[in-house]
Design brief:
The complex is a heterodimer of chains A (661) and B (659). Chain A is built from 22 helices and eleven strands. Chain A is α+β, with helices and mostly antiparallel strands and 661 residues long. In chain A, strands 1, 2, 3, 5, 6 and 9 form a six-stranded mixed β-sheet that branches. Chain A has a three-stranded antiparallel β-sheet with strand order 4-8-7, with no helix packed on it. In chain A, helix 3 packs parallel to helix 5. Chain B folds into two domains: 131-267, Butyryl-CoA Dehydrogenase, subunit A, domain 2, CATH 2.40.110.10; 273-621, Up-down Bundle (Butyryl-CoA Dehydrogenase, subunit A, domain 3), CATH 1.20.140.10. Helices cover 54% and strands 9% of the residues of chain B. Chain B contains 21 helices and eleven strands. Chain B has helices at 4-11, 17-25, 28-42, 57-78, 87-94, 101-113, 116-127, 272-306, 325-360, 367-394, 407-414, 424-443, 474-501, 506-539, 546-564, 566-570, 577-603, 609-612, 623-632, 635-638, 642-652; strands at residues 133-136, 152-156, 161-165, 173-174, 185-194, 197-207, 220-224, 237-241, 244-247, 256-258, 264-266. In chain B, strands 1, 2, 3, 5, 6 and 9 form a six-stranded mixed β-sheet that branches. The relative contact order of chain B is 0.10. The chains are: A alpha+beta (661), B alpha+beta (659).
């Protein structure tokens, strides 16, 4: 092991394993995770050449190969717990997307939740046995987050009892669904249902797209790959165009809405149920934000302990770059953020599991708040992680830019989550809608509950002549609980400001929609402040659950760093609302820098606790043993440009030029 | 035909697009010449970038070499020369996807660092491409800190040769462009040892490949460093030297020379070296950074008037996404930044020209200011524009992630600029060092360079604005920026002094203040940018509507900067909470005003469709049609699906009988 890293690990004040157990949810979960990890990593079937050296087509092929084996082995090993399946898949594909993602993650679950028993008989077992591979085709070339704008049509023909599917315009071509381009032979297609001359809105249809046996596209179906992207090389994101393509009536998913043989439309009971799936997927993205940022931090912090550069003290050897204040200032707040997001992800998952029991019994009361909260948290965490991963890459200097660092790959794999499953700005505005609604309720004298209950205090404070949140003196900058209150006051102030601005726009005789649009920048800020408060609150609450004193001490420092950094970066909000004074902001900045030095000795142990296996981390810079340079050289030798010593372009271009000039 | 949604945007322009283009180019004549060069390059099929997004690293590299070779022919055919006025447009026209860029750095370093004799020997060979050069400075373990390099060059008096070695793996040269596969020679930087004594880092010309068959020379291990986030076309290389001997005459000796007996002599000032770095940093701002941001704005803004999404009002058609305040908030500040930094670039260029003529008169006093400004602006502009391009990418929803949008390649390329030619944090600290020095001097009543004289003023006080319209006055916001820059510099200086007085060592104190110092350097550059933008706008001709729209952009840029750094402006109460609300109100009012001219403002950048190479951003706005057509060209659609026969078929046919 590299001597620098060994020294770092020896100097840590706590045992990383204990922290790993907390992240996994218990020592037993850690043991099981590592067991599954070993099953995959020691399996020769899952070995292959470094993906960085393969073409897109080769990467797709490797992914398909591994996915087929994965499905088989999961069943062979009898792994059925969703979390364990997630681990297994994540180790097999090393955190990357794969062509069966949509089949396993959307096609099968949608059949389970939206198909009738007869439909399940027809489709589920073949799909389970992978005779049918499906995808979920929602997004169109011209339409994304705004679902009602989708243009694909499904017109019912009572004469033959069939639906006729059409892509009437270029913009209506299905575009982006994963696994659609080359892999799937079926798709669940979302289309506007027309029956008896009326549009009944969006519905889901099971559409066969390729011939079973030959895999050729069916007549009336045009299907293909959408071309190269920013990452996602393994995934055949596809397009689908349908021309008068007919499917039997029984292919509409009819557990809720139905079309009877004569074309009579039967309405579904409730549409809130679809919230459940969205909450679930967005909660996964929050977890993903945490994991992706953790991976990037692991690489950047280990490398910063190995890399030496310039001089801090004249005449002394070059110091580890992690000793520079500017480097600590880049990386440690991100490390703290990664931990914060882990706890938030776990919270949403637990809350979802807790209330999904209620949901299946028809109690939907907690769903709106959770839905609103996860929308905003999805946006907040994915934006922050996205920027954080880039910051980590840049903190690795030039080598971060090489694909051997692994960070470019983490970035391109992660960054689309700012857009998919709900574009982030739109998500923030959904949360804002809930916040404004809650604010209005409070204004009209009702009480609100849950994470927005701080809005209840606004009415009490209104008697004070000054700004609602002016209580600067009470904030103690070394106490996370007190800082949570400061964030709470900031959120209250920004929600109130946005709500008032919205009202002012409405008073200018603007239409509701115009007023909303003209306030949307304020509304997004309010949502951000709300999410920031929630994250701080959850992080702080987690501290009290930590029984080991050494672990709790270091996590308290990280939590403080997280909170103070957020204040420093948004000091304008805290100053403007009178929550903190100039002098306090100066103290915050000073304390922040002190904390950097306090955390410094534990930095490597804190990323070790994330417990990423080298194979999973996929980074030469972030290797556990820190033997960076010799392995970079080994890696580079495998580059495709190095396959021959003299590149063919020498004979084709260089030599003739030299002869002519 | 042009998409009607885009056509309608062009009918309402408040200014003459053609005149704005001419202003950006620096005159009608420059526009004409630029278009002629772009046209000559783009009409030549060898320079086509049509298949770029589908090519492998090997194919991209080969295309870059082919283009570079063809470019030599083209230049002779067109009568263009390296020193001619057309040259700067060529790079823009080929969009950087061309090999041998380091060959020019090789030549320039010989011209600057070499003796007359060395210049006479090597430059003609290089001009004739009898050899291909590169520039080998960075090592695997060492980057911006040049004194830390580990490659050695030991002088051997008996044979009058230098023996070059890579003593350990971290000393391997790593990253130099054109070195992995193409170059035959390189300027390698190594620690010079004579009779066991180290004289520091010096440049040596080293042959690495045979001129006959291109095979590696004895003692040389070299190759490509493998795939990167971008720059697939460039063969960034590694180089290991094992007892490689070069004649004494191969050490570039304009400033230092080793006599045959090993006597070391030094002459002249090496400060002039800074000039090379400065030149490169200023050049990259316009060639690499501004062009990328302008292209990204063009793509994102055109797409945002073609894309319709959701409804603003019930019953109406779906709205253009640029009509959403949140979309304007994302894109318009980036557009304003493109114009702001364009004027900064002009300012730097003029400063450079002026300084250069001073330097030619042997007046080196202008160098520190030039060096500090070029370092700081390189850092601030690359950082700002990199984030801006990413914002543009993410503002295009899902389609932004398709390579066919052109945005991912713009982004991955521009972000390298934050690292190369000096890592940004280190550069900002260099600027900060200059600021602190000047601040102390100014407060002591000593003369300081023009860009920092403002540091001498000590004004407390408050921002005088009384309503939101006051914040549209350049004096008001420029003053606020100035105030903040002074405050941050002076508080960093005070903190430094405190620490030193309380017994900290100077370097420790420095390290403990670096976060603050970086902030001060950024504030200084931000202030100069705003000040210079307002001055430029004032000088514009009021006719043709250009001054008016530039004034709006300048206001937007300045106010956006205040809101984004609200805490810094509020901190000492210079701007009050109520005033900050006025800033926000004025800023939000500007968005719909600039929105109306957004498309003409990007049209004025005057990029051809070929140079944008984007399915989303082309002039006619036929976005969806083009996306569909381009996708069909993807090899994944044109070639068969090998994975089907091998894996999918057995899978689908359930030969995995264990299931």
């Amino acid at each position: 092991m590299n001597a620098d890293l060994r020294r770092e690990r020896a100097a840590a004040t706590f045992q990383p394993e204990l922290l790993t157990h907390i992240l996994d949810g218990g020592a037993e979960r850690t043991r099981r995770r590592k067991e599954i990890e070993a099953l995959v990593i020691n399996d020769p079937d899952f070995q292959h050449e470094d993906l960085n050296f393969l073409s897109r087509s080769q990467r797709y092929e490797q992914a398909i190969r591994k996915s087929s084996l994965m499905v088989m082995k999961l069943r062979e090993y009898g792994i059925a717990d969703p979390e364990e399946i997630y681990w297994f898949k994540s180790f097999v594909h090393r955190g990357r997307p794969e062509p069966l993602d949509l089949h396993l993650g959307m096609f099968l679950p949608t059949l389970l939740t939206q198909a009738t028993p007869e439909q399940q008989d027809r489709f589920f077992m073949p799909a389970w046995n992978l005779e049918i591979i499906g995808t979920y085709a929602q997004t169109e070339m011209g339409h994304g987050t705004h679902l009602r704008g989708l243009e694909t049509t499904a017109t019912y023909d009572p004469a033959t009892q069939e639906f006729i599917l059409n892509s009437p315009t270029v913009t209506s071509i299905k575009w982006w669904p994963g696994g659609l381009g080359k892999t799937s032979n079926h798709a669940i297609v979302l289309a506007q249902l027309y029956t008896q001359g009326q549009c009944k809105g969006l519905h889901a249809f099971i559409v066969p797209i390729r011939q079973l046996g030959t895999h050729e596209p069916l007549p009336g179906i045009t299907v293909g790959d959408i071309g190269p992207k920013f990452g996602y090389d393994e995934m055949d994101n596809g397009y689908l165009k349908m021309d008068n393509f007919r499917i039997p009536r029984e292919n509409m998913l009819m557990k809720y809405a139905q079309v009877e043989p004569d074309g009579t439309y039967v309405k579904p009971l409730s549409d809130k149920l679809t919230y459940g799936t969205m909450v679930f997927i967005r909660s996964l993205i929050v977890g993903d934000s945490a994991r992706s940022l953790s991976r990037a931090c692991t690489i950047a912090i280990r490398y910063s302990a190995v890399r030496h550069q310039s001089e801090l003290k004249p005449g002394e050897p070059e110091p580890q770059i992690l000793d520079y204040q500017t480097q600590q200032y880049k990386l440690f707040p991100l490390l703290a953020t990664a931990y914060a997001f882990h706890f938030v992800g776990a919270y949403i998952k637990d809350t979802y599991q807790r209330i999904s029991g209620d949901i299946s019994e028809g109690d939907l009361s907690e769903l709106p708040e959770l839905h609103a909260l996860t929308a905003g948290l999805k946006a907040f965490t994915s934006w922050t992680a996205n920027a954080g991963i880039e910051e980590c890459r840049m903190a690795c200097g030039g080598h971060g830019y090489s694909r051997c660092s692994g960070i470019p790959d983490i970035y391109v794999t992660f960054t689309p989550s700012c857009t998919y499953e709900g574009e982030n700005t739109v998500m923030m505005l959904q949360t804002a809608r809930f916040l404004v609604k809650s604010y209005t309720q409070v204004s009209s004298g009702q009480r609100v509950t849950g994470m927005v209950s701080y809005l209840n205090d606004l009415s009490r404070q209104r008697i004070q002549p000054q700004h609602v949140a002016a209580r600067a003196v009470t904030v103690r900058i070394n106490d996370p609980v007190s800082l949570v209150d400061a964030y709470k006051a900031r959120a209250a102030r920004l929600v109130e400001a946005a709500a008032k601005n919205l009202q002012a726009e409405l008073n200018h005789r603007k239409s509701k929609e115009d007023a909303w649009n003209r306030t949307s920048v304020d509304l997004v800020r309010a949502s951000e402040a709300h999410c920031h408060y929630v994250i701080g609150k959850l992080f702080t609450a987690k501290l009290s659950e930590m029984s080991n004193a050494a672990v709790r001490a270091v996590m308290t420092e990280l939590c403080l760093l997280y909170m103070l950094y957020g204040i420093s970066k948004n000091s304008g909000d805290f100053l403007q609302a009178g929550i903190l004074t100039d002098a306090q902001i100066t103290q915050v900045n000073q304390r922040l820098k002190e904390l950097l030095a306090v955390i410094r000795p534990n930095a490597v142990a804190l990323v070790d606790a994330f417990d990423f296996h080298d194979v999973h981390l996929g980074s030469v810079l972030g290797r556990y043993d820190g033997n960076v340079y010799e392995n970079m050289f080994e890696w580079a030798k495998k580059s495709p440009l190095n396959k021959t010593e003299v590149h063919e372009s020498f004979h084709k271009h260089l030599k003739p030029m030299q002869a002519k000039l | 035909s042009v998409n009607p949604d885009l056509a309608s945007e062009r009918q309402t322009a408040s200014f003459s697009v053609e005149k704005l283009t001419a202003w950006l180019d620096g005159g009608v004549e420059c526009t004409r010449m630029r278009r002629a060069v772009v046209d000559a390059i783009e009409s030549d099929p060898v320079f086509s970038r049509e298949n770029q997004y589908f090519q492998s690293q090997n194919e991209r590299y080969e295309a870059a070499v082919r283009k570079a070779v063809h470019l030599q022919r083209k230049m002779r055919e067109m009568g263009w020369t390296e020193n001619g006025p057309e040259f700067k447009y060529i790079y823009r026209a080929v969009s950087g996807d061309v090999a041998f860029l380091l060959h020019r750095v090789f030549m320039r370093s010989i011209s600057v660092l070499g003796s007359d004799k060395q210049i006479a020997k090597w430059i003609p060979l290089a001009t004739q491409y009898q050899l291909i050069g590169s520039y080998a400075q960075t090592e695997l373990g060492h980057g911006t800190y040049i004194q830390g390099l580990e490659t050695t060059a030991v002088y051997d008096t008996t044979t009058q040769e230098f023996i070059l070695n890579t003593p350990k793996i971290s000393a391997m040269k790593w990253w130099p462009g054109d070195m992995g596969r193409s170059s035959t020679h390189t300027v390698a930087f190594a620690q010079l040892y004579i009779h066991g004594k180290c004289y520091g880092v010096h440049p040596f010309i080293v042959q690495i490949r045979s001129l006959r068959d291109h095979s590696l020379c004895p003692g040389i291990i070299a190759g490509d460093i493998g795939p990167k986030m971008s720059f697939e076309h460039a063969d960034n290389g590694f180089l290991m030297l094992q007892n490689v001997r070069v004649p004494r005459e191969n050490m570039l000796s304009n400033f230092c020379e080793v006599q045959p007996d090993g006597t070391y002599t030094r002459r002249g000032s090496e400060q002039i070296n800074y000039l090379t770095m400065t030149t490169v940093r200023i050049a990259l701002i316009s060639d690499e950074v501004l062009v990328a941001l302008m292209k990204a704005c063009t793509i994102a803004i055109r797409y945002s008037v073609v894309r319709r999404q959701s409804k603003l009002k019930p019953g109406e058609e779906e709205a253009k996404i640029l009509d959403y305040q949140t979309q304007q908030e994302k894109l318009l500040p980036q557009l304003a930044a493109a114009y702001a930094f364009h004027t900064t670039n002009d300012y730097l260029q003029k400063l450079f020209d002026k300084s250069y003529s001073e330097i030619q008169k042997n007046n080196l006093e202008v160098l520190p200011e030039l060096h500090a400004l070029s370092s700081g602006f390189k850092a601030v502009i690359t950082q700002h524009c990199t984030s801006a391009v990413e914002i543009c990418l993410r503002a295009c929803g899902g389609h932004g992630y398709s390579l066919l949008s052109g945005l991912p390649s713009l982004y991955t390329k521009i972000l390298a600029s934050c690292i190369y030619e000096g890592e940004n944090t280190i550069l900002l600290l260099q600027t900060a060092r200059f600021l602190i020095k000047c601040f102390m001097a100014a407060r002591a009543g000593q003369p300081v360079p023009p860009s920092v004289t403002y540091l001498a003023t000590e004004k407390l006080g408050k921002c005088p604005a009384r309503n939101k319209l006051d914040f549209l006055s350049p004096d008001i916001y420029t003053e606020a920026y100035q105030h903040t820059a002074i405050r941050l510099t002076s508080s960093a200086a005070a903190k430094l002094q405190d620490l030193v007085q309380s017994g900290a060592k100077k370097h420790d104190a420095w390290n403990q203040c670096t976060v603050q110092l970086v902030q001060a350097a950024k504030a200084h550059c931000h202030y100069i940018t705003v000040k210079n933008f307002t001055e430029t706008v004032e000088k514009l001709e009021p006719r043709a509507g250009i001054q008016k729209i530039m004034k709006h952009l300048c206001d937007l840029f300045a106010l956006h900067g205040i809101i984004s750094n609200a805490g810094v402006f509020l901190h000492d109460g210079y701007i009050s909470g109520a005033q900050m609300d006025m800033v926000t109100a004025s800023y939000l009012d500007l968005l719909p005003v600039i929105r109306k001219d957004a498309v003409p403002l990007v049209d004025a950048f005057d990029f051809t469709d070929k140079s944008l190479n984007s399915a989303l951003g082309s002039y006619d706005g036929q976005v969806y049609q083009r996306l569909y057509e381009w996708a069909q060209k993807s090899p994944t659609n044109k070639q068969g699906n090998p994975a089907y026969e091998r894996y999918l078929k057995p899978l689908l046919h359930n030969t995995l009988s264990k299931l």
